[in-house]
Amino acid sequence: MNDWKVICRVEDIPVLGARRVARPRGMDVAVFRNDQDQVFALLDRCPHKGGPLSQGIVFGTSVACPLHNWTIGLDDGCAKGPDEGCTTRFACKVQDGQVLLDPVELATLATDVEPPRAGPCAGGGALGDASHDVQAPHG
Ligand code: FES
Predict the structure, then answer these.
(1) Is residue 137 part of a domain?
(2) Which domain holds residue 102?
(3) Within-domain flag for 120
(4) Ligand 1 contact, 67 CB (< 6 A)
(5) Under 8 Å CB-to-CB from 117, ≥6 apart: which residues?
(6) Annotated region Disordered: where (predicted)?
(7) Probe ligand 1: pick from 55, 62, 67, max atoms within 8 Å of CB?
(8) Which of 13, 43, 53, 136 has its CA 20 to 30 A from that of 69?
């Protein structure tokens, strides 16, 4: 059993939005909150063309990718049919109002997956601090 790493408080994540968690290696992890205060964690990379899922709109237990509107399941990271493909899911739990992730998974899962090299997703990534917020777009 691994120790869990405290990431933030649930209320630090915008309702129906996400917060990105930077990692020493690999792309950010997006931690989502829905309107039931359920929290989920996925690699911040759409299985279609790498769109930033942290900037998508959360509804129910899914997120709509901001690039081409694929629907990705927050509980499994997989695209809803007819689309196909999955992004990496990270273990996540809430304890006493705090969001926790598994530090071993943060250090080892999908560290070789690269961000898109061109287009609207290029140039994203860590800002240097441990974590940073991203607001879901409006409208
Ligand atoms: S990159 Fe997410 S739907 Fe195309």
Answers:
(1) no
(2) 5-108
(3) no
(4) yes
(5) none
(6) 117-139
(7) 67
(8) 13
- Does the beta carbon of 63 lie inside 6 Å of ligand 1? no
Count of structural domains, the chain? 1
Residue 126 lies in a domain: no
C-beta of 71 in contact with ligand 1 (< 6 A): no
When pLDDT is cut at 50, 70 and 90, the band that residue 1 belongs to is low
At 117, the pLDDT band (50, 70, 90 cuts) reads confident
Residue 47 lies in a domain: yes
Strands, E assignment, the chain: 5-9, 17-21, 29-33, 39-43, 57-59, 62-64, 71-73, 89-90, 92-95, 98-101, 131-134
With contact defined as beta carbons under 8 Å apart, do 99 and 109 qualify? no
CATH number of the structural domain spanning residue 25 = 2.102.10.10
pLDDT digits (tens, 9 = 90+) for 31-82: 999 999 999 999 999 999 999 999 999 999 999 999 999 999 999 999 999 9
Whether omega for the bond prior to residue 82 falls within 30 degrees of 0, making it cis, is yes
